[in-house]
């Protein structure tokens, strides 16, 4: 079976996706109906590993605080991380900040107007660059995010293993072959919408799908076998202990994590590799054990134990600073970028 569609079907596919988007696609998301690359870029980065419903509030807050890319560039990384806290995948926030600075400093505050130019910026990969270029500048260029990979691999019954870069490259070529001559912005949005609302990962709604007559995956009987991706992540497990030290006035001791690695640049309670290490700092103190946290990250499951100590009244409690870090009043915590599980722990304890 040929891997791509014949020319007439390619025309049909593009026209159908465009017409369906016009009638049935999403039109009211806050990052739609704009050609402002700052707004589109911000939404694309936020949506990379996060659901629309979660992104909405963050998106509005970012724009209210930093209405232009130059405003974001002028912010400190700590401010950006604090605003990002809870969205996860924090390298996105660091790249967001670095990208805003690059746009401000190297491009006079204006995003490059081509996918190739956009791809030179920090954190903007091929698909994100193409989405911004298609939406904002009408460039005829293909995207291949997770939703679009799913739709196209099903329509083409593409059975190359997307764990291999050769197969991924092939799918990129097919995505480019399928591009319509016109309306690339609406076509791009249409593919995204189809993937998000009709051709979903587990239960594609083929009866409602506008491209069903062309879809080889559906015709072959089991579209959910596409896309094929064999590589399994080997998940590890880690265990650490947090030490929650609280002064009589309610201040907590926080430490900033290193600039690289998990939760880079975020603030957490002092962390130890084992319980003995945490207890050794305050051998005489009564430590309360809080409920343990199990947090799943991309590559490993993280079990976090917390031991809490209330420091005594008086000078001893006020000066105690056994492991370095900053004492932060509870009402000041919103200014610090805390990972979501710690935020929840503090709110609930
Ligand atoms: Fe996806 Fe089914 Fe539509 Fe094919 S027909 S694109 S599998 S929803």
Description of the molecule:
The chain is of the alpha+beta class and 349 residues long. It has two domains: 7-225, Endonuclease III, domain 1 (Orthogonal Bundle), CATH 1.10.340; 236-348, Nucleoside Triphosphate Pyrophosphohydrolase (Alpha-Beta Complex), CATH 3.90.79.10. Helices cover 43% and strands 12% of the residues. The protein contains 15 helices and seven strands. It has helices at residues 7-24, 37-47, 52-65, 69-74, 77-84, 91-106, 115-118, 126-137, 146-155, 165-177, 184-197, 216-219, 275-281, 315-319, 340-348, and strands spanning 236-246, 252-256, 267-268, 271-272, 288-296, 300-310, 326-328. A hairpin with a 3-residue loop joins strand 5 and strand 6. The longest helix is centred in the first third of the chain and has 18 residues, at 7-24. 35% of the residues are buried. The model is unreliable at 317-321 (pLDDT under 50). The structure holds iron/sulfur cluster. Iron/sulfur cluster binds at residues 151, 154-155, 198-199, 204-206, 209, 211-212, 215, 217-218, 223.
List keywords for this structure.
elongated; 2 domains; 15 helices; alpha+beta; four-stranded mixed sheet; Endonuclease III, domain 1; Nucleoside Triphosphate Pyrophosphohydrolase; binds iron/sulfur cluster; three-stranded antiparallel sheet; 349 residues
Bound molecules: iron/sulfur cluster
Tally of DSSP β-strands: 7
Number of domains: 2
Kindly name the structural category.
Answer: alpha+beta
CATH class of the largest domain: Mainly Alpha
CATH superfamily of the largest domain: Hypothetical protein, domain 2
Element string (H = helix, E = strand): HHHHHHHHHHHHEEEEHEEHEH
Oligomer: single chain
Share of helix among residues? 40-55%
CATH architecture of the largest domain: Orthogonal Bundle
Cα distance, first to last residue? 60 Å
Shape field? elongated
Spatial order of strands in the largest sheet: 4-1-6-5
Low-confidence stretches: 317-321
CATH topology of the largest domain: Endonuclease III, domain 1
Described by strand count, sense and barrel closure, the largest sheet is: 4 strands, mixed
* SS element count, helices: 15
Strand content: 5-15%
* Overall mean pLDDT: 91
Rg over CA atoms, rounded to whole Å, is 24 Å
């Amino acid at each position: 079976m040929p891997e791509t569609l014949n020319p007439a079907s390619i025309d049909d596919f593009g026209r159908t996706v465009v017409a369906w988007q016009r009638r049935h696609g999403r039109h009211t998301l806050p990052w739609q109906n704009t050609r402002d690359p700052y707004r589109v870029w911000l939404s694309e980065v936020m949506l990379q590993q996060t659901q629309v419903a979660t992104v909405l509030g963050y998106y509005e807050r970012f724009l209210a605080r930093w209405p232009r890319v130059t405003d974001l560039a002028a912010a400190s990384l700590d401010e950006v991380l604090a605003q990002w806290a809870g969205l996860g995948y924090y390298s996105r926030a660091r790249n967001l900040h670095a990208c805003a600075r690059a746009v401000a400093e190297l491009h006079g505050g204006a995003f490059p107007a081509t996918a190739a130019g956009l791809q030179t910026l920090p954190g903007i990969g091929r698909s994100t660059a193409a989405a911004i270029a298609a939406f904002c500048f009408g460039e005829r260029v293909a995207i291949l995010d997770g939703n679009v990979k799913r739709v196209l691999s099903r329509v083409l019954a593409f059975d190359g293993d997307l764990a291999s870069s050769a197969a991924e490259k092939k799918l990129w070529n097919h995505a480019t072959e399928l591009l319509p001559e016109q309306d690339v912005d609406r076509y791009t949005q249409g593919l995204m919408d189809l993937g998000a609302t009709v051709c979903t990962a587990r239960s594609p709604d083929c009866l409602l799908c506008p491209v069903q007559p062309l879809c080889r995956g559906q015709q072959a009987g089991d579209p959910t076998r596409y896309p094929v991706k064999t590589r399994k992540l080997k998940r590890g497990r880690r265990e650490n202990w947090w030490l929650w030290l609280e002064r009589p006035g309610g201040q907590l001791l926080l430490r900033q994590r290193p600039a690289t690695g998990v939760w880079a640049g975020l603030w957490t309670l002092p962390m130890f590799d084992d319980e003995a290490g945490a207890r050794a700092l305050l051998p005489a103190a009564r430590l309360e054990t809080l409920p343990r946290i199990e947090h799943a990250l991309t590559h490993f499951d993280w079990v976090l134990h917390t031991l809490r100590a209330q420091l005594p009244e008086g000078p001893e409690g006020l000066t105690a600073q056994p492991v370095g870090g900053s004492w932060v009043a509870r009402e000041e915590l919103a200014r610090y970028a805390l990972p979501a599980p710690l935020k929840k722990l503090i709110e609930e304890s």
